[in-house]
Amino acid sequence: QVQLVESGGGLVQPGSSLRLSCAVSGIPFSRLTMNWSRRPPGKEVEWVGAIDGVGASGNAFTSYADSVKGRFTISRDIPKNILYLQMDRLKPEDTGVYYCGQGDNRGPGTQVTVSS
Predict the structure, then answer these.
(1) What is the dihedral of CA 33, 34, 40, 41, to 10 degrees?
(2) 10: Cβ–Cβ under 8 A, 6 or more apart, which residues?
(3) Per-residue pLDDT tens for 18-46?
(4) How far is residue 14's CA from residue 97's CA, in Å, rounded to a whole number?
(5) pLDDT tens per residue across span 78-110
(6) Which of 16, 70, 75, 97 could make a disulfide contact with 109, Cβ separation 3.0–4.6 Å?
(7) E strands within the chain?
(8) Are 32 and 102 a contacting pair, CB within 8 Å?
């Protein structure tokens, strides 16, 4: 059974950094594409970025939405089965509920609020 549980959200000021974590269980974590998405207040869920499964080279390709490219970084700790989303230079428009996901599965989310 797939289980995804996000944590690390909170209230931060613009320009700050925050790291979200997602504890993953029930799937071969290192071999699958994992993604982050978010739901801004009053809006639909939008894709934030993804990390591919680890390839033969030991690397994993990452991709990001234009709105977060250069500010957000996705990584994974394979031994701990944790997916991360490092968010730097946060903006008020980054406010929302953040979800980690794999395929059709998604966690309950963690709230991020960027406000002065």
Answers:
(1) 130
(2) 18, 111, 112, 113
(3) 999 999 999 988 899 999 999 999 999 99
(4) 17
(5) 999 999 999 999 999 999 999 999 998 999 999
(6) 97
(7) 3-7, 10-12, 18-25, 34-39, 46-51, 62-64, 72-77, 82-87, 96-102, 105-106, 110-114
(8) yes
